[in-house]
């Protein structure tokens, strides 16, 4: 696998565009389009929140119908959530307009929205925006980059990645873009992620790959413990790499899954590290667990602990908060076996051995915790399973952003 400089336009046949439609924001782009020259097989994963935004309901229907897709239209600023029957009508109108200007089947148009919940969509601006997108779509790296910027809300940076692999003598590319900064919690989040690939792959294999991978990537991140109404991950595969078709259970499927996992994990970590008001990506690794479930539950519990997150913000090696979060997770473990470490680019330090705190160099610990990426490693010494979760520190900036988000 080779990492390349790219995003959603890196795979063959994909184009992108961005536009300033004035849906909520002024002076910036707020709509994006992804377009494939060839029809795409699709797979999707969506929020587990009972309250689902209209685009989530729309996309889930499209993906499950088996209709192939050419176009994804995304807006930022307004979430089109809790908008009743009007919200689904907005999706239908958006799809019909995109189908009209792009010459595709409206039943296969996918839609994404992110922003304020409860506001109605200004459809005159949306339809005008679609026309702009259709006129300016390109296959360039810059077009993909600008599309990634257009879907941002409180994000401070765009999130993109692309890789290539070799299958049957053909170069297959997997690229993606995502947005997400707040209302992020395991079980999908206000996160949108769009993955494009030119792989020739069966619908069954594509769906299976995404379903398997979401559990270890997007569902292992948390910023604030709030599971959004709009979480969506979509994968579009147009087959233009002309590789031998990938089927479930083959070596080629495993290779594709590894590439998809790298793209998904990279985007998930970018979202966690760009949490609202955050200054650091906080990674939690549970190793030596007796089961995958035990490791996942413990990792999530620590990464979601507000007390631990504030300690990371203060560069304070307050390890008791980590052990405490593990203790209330609901999973059993032997406290007297646990070893705990902090690690970053500045070094590694052990804080607990066999469940008991050690005398450690506070100055060195502070230095380690002052890096922009910090890892806590808890070794249970009970087995061979492990899991990783990602979050961020919790600062005053989170409150500043969310106290007046609607304005």
TrEMBL record:
A GO MF term: L-glutamate N-acetyltransferase activity, acting on acetyl-L-ornithine as donor
Subcellular location: Cytoplasm
Entry annotation: catalytic residues: 190 (nucleophile)
Enzyme class, UniProt record, top EC level: transferase
Keywords: Acyltransferase, Amino-acid biosynthesis, Arginine biosynthesis, Autocatalytic cleavage, Cytoplasm, Multifunctional enzyme, Transferase
Binding-site list for substrate: 153, 179, 190, 276, 402, 407
Gene3D superfamilies xref list: ArgJ beta chain, C-terminal domain, L-amino peptidase D-ALA esterase/amidase
Main subcellular location: cytoplasm
EC code(s) of this entry: 2.3.1.35, 2.3.1.1
Recorded family membership: Belongs to the ArgJ family.
Complex and partners: Heterotetramer of two alpha and two beta chains.
Designated name of the protein: Arginine biosynthesis bifunctional protein ArgJ
